[in-house]
Design a protein that fits this description.
Elements lengths: L1 H4 L3 H19 L2 H4 L4 H20 L2 H22 L1 H15 L10 H25 L1 H21 L5 H21 L2 H4 L3 H21 L10 H23 L7 H4 L17 E7 L7 E8 L1 E2 L4 E2 L8 H16 L8 E10 L4 E3 L2 E2 L2 E6 L5 E4 L2 E8 L4 E9 L4 H12 L1 H4 L2 H15 L10 H15 L7 H10 L6 H13 L2 E2 L13 H12 L1 E2 L1 H14 L4 E9 L7 E4 L3 E9 L3 E4 L7 H4 L9 H6 L39 H33 L3 H18 L10 H9 L10 H4 L1 H11 L6 H21 L1 H13 L4
Parallel strand pairs: 12-13
Antiparallel strand pairs: 1-5, 1-15, 2-7, 2-14, 3-4, 5-11, 6-10, 8-11, 9-10, 14-16, 16-17
Helix pairs in contact: 2-4, 2-7, 2-9, 2-11, 4-5, 4-7, 7-8, 8-9, 9-11, 14-17, 17-18, 20-22, 26-29, 26-30, 30-31
Length: 793
């Protein structure tokens, strides 16, 4: 074949493969084609490639002269630059290679030339290694294909030339692999045959580079949908194994705990627990209620009262009715409607997390929940993939007019005992579920019992020591109303020290009184649970119903998807204002600016001053926008820095660590096995090699159903095989099984083994494998894999 072509096909094939490897390594780098004078860089790369190709075709003397000339050029350059500057250049090359800035920008061209030279040497050695061990080339191609698919699904950008050259290299590898398995037909001129099809592969590469590409890449919607579905199912499965039926929260790590324990230090832990997405701009932090507590024993909160299945929605209805009664025309100045989608991620919980003033909660077919006073519970427990939608009303807590409304309603004693409000709340709930029901889901009498029960459950008697009572009287001395007292307590507590390491509560803290004495008079530091607990107890001491709430404080900006992390867990107090409903407060230092954000008012000042004595007007139905005339909200001030955790998806993190490790382990195992097998095979005598090849052929014959009987000779088995009609359709089995006759001559006739006999046995095995493909396809793939991966086993 060499004489027919006029040159060595193997050398040309080697040069082409080295060229593809250099193109992937050099031209595939975006930095190589950017910056100043990219043409010179490409010309230098071509020159280096030309020198490498010349070394392949030259004889020994020419290679020595060429390498000597290159060495002289490099030595002259270093002598001209000086020893010190040359060493500085070499030391700064590797930081530049890793993307760091360099002190001397004029050296970048030298760096590129040095990189090109090193890349050419590496590609040359790599190609020699691939020719020696073809399985390594297949492994590299697999890694390149896996990398392209990974970048496709994770939207990591890969420049176009890199993709083109990688695809070209993959095509070359596949064709070479096919040719290698056709040696039984093509003989030993595989590289020459590859040389004939190379022009078509190079033409494909050039056309792909020259053809225009759309600016927007193809999205592959079907493939992405299948991939995401498989990924989500896998994540849900792994998370269910991880959490089981346990609660995925711990106060020590997240600030949220089903136990409601107070005391101890918080530990830094940040993992993604859910995502939230809203349908309209949310220019304030979002507070998601998890669990509500009513009883504190001095060291731990608990929820003793069980009941009121509609209490969450009764509370929202009460606030909506109060706003409508107070100022129906500009009700959008006090509350407005938002819809949010919540999706649980890497944790398991039995709670439904919903914002304050939730109005409707809907989920999929398997989503079901119940209401236990102010706590929403999942009936089946929730984990990865649990998704539901919440309609809620945001309150304008940062606007002074809102607190004027609360003050007016709390001072109106007629409202507190009015049956009109009970009936309005009942009708509001009736509107929520639809008027097709014959009667309201909650009667006015049940609403009245609910409102009365709040005082019984969330007030209680809180005894203060004489010192604590004097201290509270001092900070609330100038407060004339209930709301002013609450604001004074909140202001005092928020001025204290926030710390995640307050230490354990002393043994002397055994009840509410001793806790307040310790926190108010001694410690005055802690995290959210300390401040929320103190506020609730002091509010109750003033005769105001209050409760302790745990959930999440989420920085919410815009309508995009918001990641909620475990370290966003938070605790806060809520106070019941008769005629208004539950109103949250924020005594924790540093959180006030997050809670009390606002939007501007539509009503003029005189309307705000005159609001308060308007007749009740029926609220619009659920499907209509409940709060029209929503004004544009100003941009929220940067009141807190939320650290970016930098965490990626669970599957991506696992694949980035596990998949490369598994691939590397498999590759090393195959390489070690083949290296040891090649070593053992090389030390065998010709007769031992021949016996090994015969043993392999007999194993494939056994898979074809031609197995040697217990008392059967090899010659008898050969005669039986030549009579198999299923095997002799397109093959002369007498010729295929000739190696058995050769083996008998070696064993019984003392015939010497030659290399031609060994090679003939190998070629016959290729034919037997092709017969196996027709008769038993699974066995065919098994033996093919063994022949590629365990060649010398």
């Amino acid at each position: 074949m060499k004489e027919k072509l006029g040159f060595d096909a193997g050398k040309v094939y080697r040069v082409v493969n080295i060229g593809l490897l250099m193109c992937m390594g050099l031209i595939g780098r975006e930095q190589f084609r950017s910056g100043e004078r990219p043409g010179i860089r490409i010309l230098a790369a071509v020159l280096i490639f030309g020198i490498s190709a010349g070394l392949i075709f030259m004889r020994t003397r020419g290679r020595i002269l060429c390498l000597g000339a290159v060495g002289v050029c490099l030595g002259t350059t270093m002598a001209f630059a000086g020893r010190t500057e040359s060493l500085v250049f070499l030391r700064s090359f590797f930081p530049w290679l890793w993307g760091n800035s360099v002190e001397f920008a004029e050296w970048e061209m030298g760096y590129e030339l040095m990189l090109g030279t090193g890349m050419a040497v590496m590609c040359f050695l790599t190609e020699l290694l691939f020719e020696r061990f073809p399985a390594l080339k297949i492994g590299l191609s697999g890694l390149l294909l896996t990398g392209l698919l990974y970048c496709l699904f994770t939207r990591n950008r890969v420049i176009r030339p890199a993709v083109v050259f990688i695809l070209g290299y993959l095509l070359m590898t596949y064709v070479e692999w096919t040719q290698r398995h056709w040696e039984k037909v093509c003989g030993r001129g595989r590289k020459a045959h590859m040389l004939w099809i190379m022009p078509f592969i190079l033409l494909y590469t050039v056309l792909t580079l020259c053809m225009p590409a759309p600016e927007k890449p193809y999205e592959w919607p079907l493939v992405r949908a299948v991939y995401h579905q498989i990924r989500e199912n896998f994540r849900a499965f792994t998370q269910s194994i991880r959490w089981g039926n346990g609660e995925g929260f711990d106060m020590a790590f997240s600030g949220f705990s089903e136990d409601g324990e107070v005391g101890g230090n918080l530990q830094e832990a940040s993992r993604e627990v859910m995502t939230v997405q809203m349908d309209r701009g949310q220019n304030a932090n979002l507070y998601l209620t998890g669990k509500v507590y009513d009883t504190f024993d001095g060291r731990q909160w608990e929820q003793r009262y069980q009941g009121d299945q509609d209490s969450v929605f009764l509370d929202t209805a009460e606030t909506l009715c109060a706003v409508r009664k107070y100022n129906a025309r500009y009700r959008g100045d006090y509350m407005y409607e938002i819809n949010a989608s919540i999706n649980y991620r890497y944790f398991h919980t039995g709670f439904v997390f919903a914002p304050v003033k939730a109005w409707r909660i809907e989920g999929g077919r398997r989503f079901a929940y119940s209401c236990n006073d102010g706590t929403l519970l999942l009936k089946r427990g929730g984990g990865y993939g649990t998704e539901y939608r919440v309609q809620y009303y945001r309150m304008n807590l940062g606007q002074e007019e809102f607190w004027h409304f609360v003050e007016e309603q709390s001072a109106d004693r007629a409202v507190m005992s009015s049956g009109e409000m009970d009936e309005a709340i009942s009708n509001e709930l009736w509107t929520r579920i639809g008027r097709e029901e014959k009667e309201p889901p909650v009667s006015p009498e049940e609403v009245a019992r609910y409102r009365q029960g709040i005082t019984e459950r969330y007030l209680g008697e809180v005894a203060l020591s004489r010192e604590a009572s004097a201290y509270v009287a001092e900070i609330t001395g100038e407060a004339g109303t209930m709301l002013e007292k609450l604001k004074a307590i909140e202001k005092e507590l928020s001025g204290w020290t926030y710390t995640k390491s307050p230490g354990l509560l002393p043994e002397s803290v055994k009840d509410q009184e001793s806790f307040l004495d310790y926190f108010l008079l001694e410690s005055r530091q802690g995290y959210c649970t300390y401040f929320a607990t103190a506020f609730v107890l002091l509010a109750r001491a003033e005769g105001i119903p209050a409760r302790f709430v745990q959930g999440y404080c989420v920085p919410a900006q815009g309508t995009g998807e918001i990641n909620v992390y475990s370290d966003m867990a938070h605790a806060w107090p809520e106070v019941y204002i008769a005629g208004v409903g539950w109103i949250p407060f924020e005594p924790t230092p540093g959180y006030g600016g997050l809670r009390y954000t606002s939007w501007g008012l539509n009503q003029p000042d005189e309307d705000a001053a005159e609001a308060g004595n308007q007749p009740y007007i029926e609220m619009p139905e659920f499907g209509a926008p409940a709060m029209e005339e929503m004004p544009e909200m100003p941009e929220m001030e940067d009141v807190t820095d939320v650290e970016d955790t930098g965490e990626t998806g669970y599957l991506q993190r696992m694949l980035r660590v596990a998949l490369p490790a598994i691939v590397l382990l498999c590759v090393l195992s195959v390489l070690l096995e083949n290296a040891l097998g090649r070593y053992r095979y090389g030390r065998m005598s010709p007769e031992e090699k021949f016996r090994e090849e015969i043993r392999r052929n007999l194993r494939i014959l056994s898979a074809l159903g031609l197995e040697r009987g217990q008392w059967e000779t090899l010659q008898e088995m050969r005669e039986r095989g030549t009579g198999r009609r299923d095997l002799t359709v397109d093959r002369d089995m007498r010729e295929v099984l000739r190696f058995i006759e050769d083996y008998e001559d070696v064993v019984y006739g003392a015939r010497p083994v030659t290399e031609d006999m060994i090679w003939e046995a190998v070629k016959k095995r290729q034919i037997l494998v092709e017969l196996l493909k027709r008769e038993r396809r699974l066995a065919y793939y098994y033996y093919r894999m063994r022949m590629v991966l365990m060649r010398y086993r």
